[in-house]
């Protein structure tokens, strides 16, 4: 954790950046900085000697070039252009980058949004302007991340944009190439900046003054190692910039390896826009770290802390008393879709923290002790030719129910239920996966039952679900059905239930330009959004909105983990005999619960509207009183 005072910054500069030092002391405030920029630009238009002096200062002083002429594009919350005035914690990073520029690899270990990519790109642009024959290389996980016309998220757009915001007298004649080549050429000094996708042959046959590797942890696994080897002979300097994504990637290995390679750390804790009111927890309550440096803990956060801490607990956040927090950090934690895994990956610089159980062991144990119930009964299911089901008592039967049976031998339920299904191949091996139909009360969120089998293929399982649907029919309508549609087994299941006319089914959503729209595709594709799908379930489970009764279900929650690449997987996926499950979907209870919960949310129970009571003495109240006193017609 750093606190860079003016004196500390001046000592760090050590006279090596005299132009910037003056700028830092006099024009650090954004309004003052903009006024000074305008003054310099206007004078340089008519004063050739002053213009040449500014160009020389920019060439010799990287920090002056940044703070006097460069800009940042920030689209959040509304698009705006900001003067590039380095934050105090960025200044040591820029100095370290400068000291090793062109001569040594540099590892950047950063939180999301700390400006590292902008710093390296702007430093490359400086050499492209002032160093004849400079050759810069830019690499990212795919070519769309490197260069795509009019896309502000790609690297070369940022260079184009930065160049376009320099004064006209600083801009050289340049040539820009799109298509098969992604190139910026300074036609006055023949300096080049070229973009590439991360491949096993990255840089082969070429030479570069400096490479930027942006988000290296997201390079394809295997190709990242090959790219590291292939670029070694091509340059002395690779700026390897990234947040973390698991421990399987080459970025993690080189970050954790003991070496003399310079390392730059950019942590959110040191960012003055993020660390206001920095605090730790003592006995569960916020305690400010240093009010003189970071200011007090915000009053509204202290006032609402009981509710906030409960929300954090419900989402799976568990911190020790050493963890540094701020209001900004807490707001990130509580944003829709954010998870402890996501915070570890994006902000905490904690690659080991991106690999852990998806469901907290301590939390599951506590909830299990409170909600686990022995089933009221276990049954085999007999299905006739019309897909009508009959329940037969069987202590080892595949159907478990947490409800009584009525006089007809059908589940005695008060509310409509939903079905959530995960389908396996039905190979019946000891290590093969289950097909599961989870049965959830749509009103209370309570688990009513589950049907679990390894012995039914997708078509047979579809017939079973139809029979279960007829047993749980409410108001002449079968339960609302959702299932994991990924892979061949999901499609075979859908083919069967469509063939036998199970009509009350979940239709998945898709995003388009008009917003969230229903597609005409049935079921849920959990493989493309498994973390999001399970996150919805986890939040409901932690908050008690989803009440899980199955002992085996609680235990299976703990078998979901983050793998080395930061993806959510079932721990058995790599060892299963079921080829449809290996490395892909895995037939188990939690996926069935998750897609059932999506169905609950898609079709929430409609509560009866409460009758509005007019305030006593109001016009509506007097009108209602007159209606009550009015005698009824004899003909009524």
Describe this protein's structure.
This protein has 636 residues and is α/β, with parallel strands linked by helices. An eight-stranded mixed sheet has the order 5-6-7-4-8-9-3-10, with helices on both faces. Strands 14-13-15-18-17-16-19 form a seven-stranded mixed sheet. Strand 11 (279-282) and strand 12 (285-288) form a beta hairpin. Helix 2 runs parallel beside helix 5 (62-69). The protein starts with 5 loop residues before the first helix and ends in a 7-residue tail after the last helix.
Quickly describe the structure.
With 636 residues, the protein is of the alpha/beta class. 36% of the residues lie in helices and 18% in strands. The strands form six sheets. An eight-stranded mixed β-sheet has the order 5-6-7-4-8-9-3-10, sandwiched between helices. Strands 14-13-15-18-17-16-19 form a seven-stranded mixed β-sheet.
């Amino acid at each position: 954790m750093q606190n860079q005072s003016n004196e500390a910054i001046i000592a760090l500069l050590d006279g090596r950046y005299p132009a910037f030092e003056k700028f830092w002391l006099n024009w650090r405030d954004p309004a003052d900085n903009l006024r000074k920029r305008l003054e310099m630009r206007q004078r340089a238009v008519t004063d050739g000697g002053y213009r040449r002096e500014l160009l020389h200062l920019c060439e010799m002083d990287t920090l002056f070039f940044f703070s006097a002429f460069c800009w940042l594009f920030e689209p959040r919350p509304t698009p705006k252009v900001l003067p590039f005035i380095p934050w105090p914690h960025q200044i040591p990073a820029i100095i370290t980058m400068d000291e090793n520029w062109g001569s040594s690899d540099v590892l950047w270990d950063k939180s999301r949004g700390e400006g590292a990519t902008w710093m390296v790109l702007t430093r490359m642009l400086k050499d492209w302007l002032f160093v004849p024959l400079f050759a810069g290389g830019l690499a990212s996980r795919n070519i769309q991340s490197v260069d795509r016309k009019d896309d502000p998220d790609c690297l070369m757009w940022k260079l184009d944009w930065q160049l376009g915001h320099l004064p006209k007298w600083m801009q050289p004649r340049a040539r820009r190439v799109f298509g098969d080549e992604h190139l910026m050429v300074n036609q006055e000094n023949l300096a080049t900046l070229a973009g590439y996708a991360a491949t096993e042959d990255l840089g082969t046959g070429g030479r570069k003054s400096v490479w930027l590797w942006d988000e290296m942890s997201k390079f394809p696994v295997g190709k990242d190692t090959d790219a590291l080897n292939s670029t070694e002979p091509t340059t002395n300097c690779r700026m390897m910039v990234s947040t973390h994504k698991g421990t399987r990637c080459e970025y993690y290995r080189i970050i954790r390896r003991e070496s003399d390679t310079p390392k730059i750390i950019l942590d959110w804790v040191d960012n003055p826009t993020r660390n206001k009111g920095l605090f730790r927890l003592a006995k569960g309550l916020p305690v400010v770290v240093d009010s003189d440096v970071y200011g007090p803990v915000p009053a509204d956060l202290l006032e609402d802390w009981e509710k906030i801490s409960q929300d954090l607990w419900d989402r799976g956040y568990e911190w020790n008393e050493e963890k540094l927090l701020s209001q900004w950090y807490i707001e990130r934690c509580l944003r829709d879709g954010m998870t402890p895994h996501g915070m570890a990956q994006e902000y905490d610089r904690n690659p080991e923290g991106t690999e852990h159980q998806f469901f907290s062991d301590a939390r599951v144990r506590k909830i299990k002790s409170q909600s686990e119930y022995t089933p009221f009964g276990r049954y085999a299911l007999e299905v006739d030719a019309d897909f009508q089901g009959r329940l037969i008592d069987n202590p080892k039967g595949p159907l478990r129910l947490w409800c009584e049976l009525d006089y007809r031998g059908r589940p005695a339920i008060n509310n409509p239920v939903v079905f959530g299904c995960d389908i396996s191949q039905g190979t019946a091996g000891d290590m093969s996966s289950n097909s599961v139909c989870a049965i959830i009360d749509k009103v209370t969120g309570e688990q009513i039952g589950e049907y679990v089998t390894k012995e039914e293929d997708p078509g047979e399982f579809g017939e079973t679900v139809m029979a279960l649907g007829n047993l749980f029919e409410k108001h002449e309508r079968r339960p609302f059905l959702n299932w994991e549609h990924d892979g061949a087994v999901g499609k075979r299941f859908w083919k069967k239930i469509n063939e036998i006319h199970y009509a009350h089914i979940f239709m998945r959503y898709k995003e388009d330009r008009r917003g969230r729209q229903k597609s005409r595709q049935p079921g849920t594709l959990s493989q493309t959004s498994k973390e999001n799908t399970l996150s919805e379930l986890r939040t409901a489970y932690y908050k008690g909105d989803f009440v899980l009764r199955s002992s085996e279900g609680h235990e299976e929650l703990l078998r979901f983990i983050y793998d080395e690449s930061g993806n959510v997987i079932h721990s058995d996926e790599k060892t299963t005999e079921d080829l449809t499950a290996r490395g892909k979907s895995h037939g188990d209870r939690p996926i069935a619960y998750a897609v059932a919960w999506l169905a609950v949310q898609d079709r929430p129970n409609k509560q009866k509207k409460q009758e509005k009571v007019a305030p006593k003495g109001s016009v509506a109240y007097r009108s209602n009183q007159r209606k009550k006193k009015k005698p009824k017609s004899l003909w009524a």
